[in-house]
């Protein structure tokens, strides 16, 4: 097959490209330029949007012996990922930019262009597997599994995707990279959000969305406990950075429980108020056969997060997951990914949906969106 290998400049994508060649495919490497001004995104070895990364990808392609190109995706990336990030926070939601990048860039814009140029598939360094039935499954290395962030793929996109590293632990990938003479063998993994240069998410949002003074309120009593300069700088489940001068009566920390952008209001309370067991999503993306009614499954609510047994019901155009044990901190805007734990070849991704709201079946109040995170 003709395979386009997406090469970020890191060790994973380099080894994935080398394995595709070794498997007998006709491979071409491509690096995605995601910023017209790379210095405004993260620099050094921690990101995936830097000039250094482009150079590392090119050197790896030379060692592997494949053609290499750089594709300018800066405008599309800014519109579909960065602007979406701004708008979601402005709406009081907590987006996952890695999911959005996979959905809109790596397996949409790139795959579409690759298919138009006559390629049969796109290979990436994601840690996930495809079974003999073509379904997406967890990687053998649970600490690196990325099936969650790939849960946004459609069956058509998955059919033209390759994940050569899914059956290998990360430490073995690094050893293999050294054996192959790839200079990126010991390059650190990327962390945080690649397009925020200094890692200061709150500052990044403030620069774009501005400041507006609002109240921080005790949700239970309505008492004003403090003020802030923009509700978009918070995420539900957040504990740090609230700037409250007076502790709770019981001395326990307070957490963000809800964010209301319309009146710029942030409500806080105890951790127990973050407890939820019912989660609703918008329209799901089905990676396997579309299901109806209710069925038993496992759900994951954040990348590398805990897995929850649940009863999932398809209703009102979305999914409702009733967790068999409660979760704490589940943010609107994040993804709920549904797995079949009984699949013959290992956990298979059935569907994903963007979380709209969550609630506790024990609470008398209406829904409250959550997810533990720190801005």
TrEMBL record:
SUPFAM superfamilies assigned to the protein according to its UniProt record, in alphabetical order: Adenine nucleotide alpha hydrolases-like (SSF52402)
Site (Interaction with tRNA): 126, 334
InterPro entries on file: MnmA-like, MnmA-like_C, MnmA-like_central, MnmA-like_central_sf, Rossmann-like_a/b/a_fold
Entry's family note: Belongs to the MnmA/TRMU family.
Annotated gene: mnmA
Residues annotated as domain tRNA-specific 2-thiouridylase MnmA-like central: 204-269
Compositionally skewed regions (Low complexity) per UniProt: 357-366
Protein name: tRNA-specific 2-thiouridylase MnmA
Keywords tagged on the record: ATP-binding, Cytoplasm, Disulfide bond, Nucleotide-binding, RNA-binding, Transferase, tRNA processing, tRNA-binding
Region (Disordered): 356-375
Function: Catalyzes the 2-thiolation of uridine at the wobble position (U34) of tRNA, leading to the formation of s(2)U34.
Residue intervals of the tRNA-specific 2-thiouridylase MnmA-like C-terminal domain: 277-355
Catalyzed chemical reaction(s): S-sulfanyl-L-cysteinyl-[protein] + uridine(34) in tRNA + AH2 + ATP = 2-thiouridine(34) in tRNA + L-cysteinyl-[protein] + A + AMP + diphosphate + H(+)
Stretch list, region Interaction with tRNA: 144-146
Subcellular location as annotated: Cytoplasm
Molecular-function GO terms, alphabetical: tRNA-uridine 2-sulfurtransferase activity
UniProt organism field: Glycomyces mayteni
List of catalytic residues: 101 (nucleophile), 194 (cysteine persulfide intermediate)
Chief place where the protein resides: cytoplasm
HAMAP family according to UniProt: tRNA_thiouridyl_MnmA
Chain positions recorded as ATP binding sites: 6-13, 32, 125
